[in-house]
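To: structure desk
From: M.T.
Subject: fold request, one chain
Message: Could you run this one when you get a chance? Sequence is below, nothing fancy, just the single chain.
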Amino acid sequence: MRELTRLRDQVGVWQGISRSLRDTRELAELCDEELYDELATEVERLSAEVQQLEFQTLMAGDYDDENAILAIHAGAGGTEAQDWAQMLQRMFIRWAEQHRMKVEVLDESAGDEAGIKSCMMSVSGSYAYGWLKSERGVHRLVRISPYDGSSRRHTSFAKVEVWPDVAEEIEIEIDEKDLRIDRYRSSGAGGQHVQKTETAVRLTHLPTGLVVSCQNQRSLNQNMAVAMNILKSQLFDLARRNQKEEIATLKGEDVDAAWGSQIRSYVLQPYKMVKDHRTGHEVGNTQAVLDGRLDDFMEAFLRHQVGEGTRIEQTDQDFVEI
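Reply: Done. Structure tokens follow.
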């Protein structure tokens, strides 16, 4: 039923465009000068809708229209990296809110002094995975550290993982003998009940070494169900990567969150710039990017993948490695 609803929505969009084009053509055939302004407005609206539909054709992967699971891990940089990981979490939540997507934090590990060590979130909405798959990789931050009394410049790293939330659509049998289940008290928000009882759960899949934890649900059973779904999605992803030794892997290459492996750099000092190293796209408004304005970077990546290059204007300013 969910697949039927999705297909009906897609067909409905194209049928609506077809009707609008027919009505606009009839309006143009009237050749009435009084209707020129109305006609120009309608053509502009239709042009924007068609461009958006054309862009969606770039997200034609098997799972691009699925919901996504996004994980962030602080890398090299200590407290700085943990603060950076939390900044990235906020950035992706803001982006999802701008697209009217639902975000749920499934698991979160607080930093030692500030920020977070890691987190896992589900993002639900139209083409969530298709959009967010461009963000997997290492993100680098350069800034004057607020945690350094000498106000020195620091470089921090965090790794982002993204995979499609397809647990409900796949059949993967997990033998209980292959699982180690650890229960513990939640360290996050959720009320006294969550904090005083062992509602959090950590699953370790012994044959593969995959580890999944969940603590943000109200009960042990709810956390267990969410963790099992995530584990199924990860096992499915691993199976695909084992079957296909090519570029089209769903989670991408596993790299260390450190020097030389970043996909994007966010420079706040000595100048302000965000640059994607895969496409060359860069912007100077770093605050807007950190507030969730990521669409230009995502579109540049998707067009780069299919060899179209980018239609987004590039600045001539050179990017200097710090």
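Reply (cont.): The CA atoms of residues 72 and 160 lie 5 Å apart. Let me know if you need anything else for the meeting.
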